[in-house]
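Wed. Picked up where I left off yesterday with Zinc finger GRF-type domain-containing protein. The coffee machine is broken again, so keeping this brief.
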Amino acid sequence: MCGKGTVRCTSWTDQNLGCRFLSCKNLKKKGGCNFFLWTDPSMRGRSIQIIPGLLYQPKEEEHKASRRKKREKILWFFLLLSSFFLLWFWLGIELELKGCN
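Structure written out below (tokens, as returned):
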């Protein structure tokens, strides 16, 4: 160790997702050493497949909600536009019937 101190970190890679480790405070900086020590056992089997999916699932739901909101805005636009044209058409017929042409 270089004497700079250690930090506890959490891995966010798919292979070691959620596993904690200790590393040099300056691991990737100039003057840091290569100290690295896993403090949690590595995950095995099915958990390696399941946990990444659970992490990415909320992002997928947010994306779907965003698409739904966008679609809803478009539908509101067309509803207002068609209402405007129906009103314009109805007023045109009313004026024509009254002879205000």
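Quick read: The first strand starts at residue 6 and ends at 10.
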